[in-house]
């Protein structure tokens, strides 16, 4: 037939795969709907496989189409990143490192890294995005992040993971709560309290660890609220809507009507880890990792 797969085919395919609607995809691409249909049909002929199932009511991806969508998203994103890195390098910079993080990493680890990058490699640009554990893993796998700071026990094959910080946990109580650091003896003093936790979807490891802290004390906590933001949790505690258990480092940077009791004697620790894709070819990644891991070994 003489046709060859070209970059435009990928863009057309992604538009239809995202919209699952030919007219909407054509409008997004500013081309005619018949023209878009021809391009997708040509792409299917070149690949010798069907990518979409079409009927009068809807458009869906075939299994081959689902697979291709993930691969094309990676390819297109990698091309965009490469273009951006080339521009930065041509302007005299080393490139850009894209950093994902949980909120607790912003207390010490991420700011320390940014300062060290600025001092050691001022020609490396940085971008930051606060994301959940799962979102960071997915972004690194898709090459939309270079490095992430997570609370996970393990990661998928192809990713590297190293612990960079171990933190204790602390109770968060309203300032007027009758128990303080002097009168605190054991966790079972709070067996009848309502608890406010970070959402399990945000960090399953953290959620399970907090549950285990209570279970080790002989009770299962009654959970009244969940959130993905420390400030929201502290605000709920401040308003006597429950108590919380958080990594100790999270207490800094907030001025709210709560008090903290560090749980020094329990076995559980809040571990923060750095993750990255082992075959990531971003030249700035090795410099960033070296700074993070060198600091964690101190």
Automatic annotation (TrEMBL):
Keywords: DNA-binding, Transcription, Transcription regulation
Highest taxon of source: Bacteria
GO cellular component: protein-DNA complex
Domain called HTH lysR-type: residue spans: 5-62
Gene Ontology MF terms: DNA binding; DNA-binding transcription factor activity
PROSITE patterns documented for this protein: HTH_LYSR
A Pfam family the protein falls into: HTH_1
Family, as annotated: Belongs to the LysR transcriptional regulatory family.
PANTHER family, alphabetized: HTH-TYPE TRANSCRIPTIONAL REGULATOR CYNR, TRANSCRIPTIONAL DUAL REGULATOR HCAR-RELATED
Name of the protein: Transcriptional regulator, LysR family
Source organism: Cellulophaga algicola (strain DSM 14237 / IC166 / ACAM 630)
């Amino acid at each position: 037939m003489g046709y060859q797969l070209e970059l435009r085919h990928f863009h057309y395919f992604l538009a239809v795969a995202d919209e699952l609607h030919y007219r909407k995809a054509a409008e997004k691409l500013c081309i005619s709907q018949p023209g878009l249909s021809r391009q997708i049909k040509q792409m299917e002929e070149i690949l010798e496989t069907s990518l979409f199932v079409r009927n009068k009511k809807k458009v869906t991806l075939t299994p081959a189409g689902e697979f291709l969508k993930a691969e094309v998203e990676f390819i297109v994103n990698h091309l965009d990143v490469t273009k951006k890195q080339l521009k930065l390098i041509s302007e005299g910079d080393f490139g850009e490192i894209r950093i994902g993080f949980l909120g607790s990493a912003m207390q010490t680890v991420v700011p320390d890294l940014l300062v060290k990058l600025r001092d050691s490699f001022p020609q490396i640009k940085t971008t930051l995005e606060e994301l959940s554990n799962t979102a960071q893993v997915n972004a690194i796998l898709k090459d939309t992040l270079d490095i992430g700071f997570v609370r996970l026990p393990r990661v998928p094959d192809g990713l590297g993971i190293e612990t960079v910080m171990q933190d204790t946990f602390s109770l968060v109580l309203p300032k007027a709560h009758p128990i303080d650091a002097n009168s605190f003896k054991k966790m079972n003093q709070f067996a009848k309290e309502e608890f406010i936790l970070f959402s399990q979807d945000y960090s399953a490891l953290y959620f399970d660890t907090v549950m285990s802290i209570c279970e080790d004390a002989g009770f299962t906590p009654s959970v009244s609220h969940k959130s993905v933001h420390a400030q929201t949790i502290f605000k709920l505690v401040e308003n006597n809507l429950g108590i919380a258990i958080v990594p100790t480092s999270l207490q800094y940077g907030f001025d709210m009507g709560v008090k903290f009791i560090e749980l020094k004697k329990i076995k559980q620790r809040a571990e923060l880890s750095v993750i990255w894709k082992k075959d990531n070819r971003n030249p700035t990644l090795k410099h960033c990792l070296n700074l993070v891991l060198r600091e964690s070994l101190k």
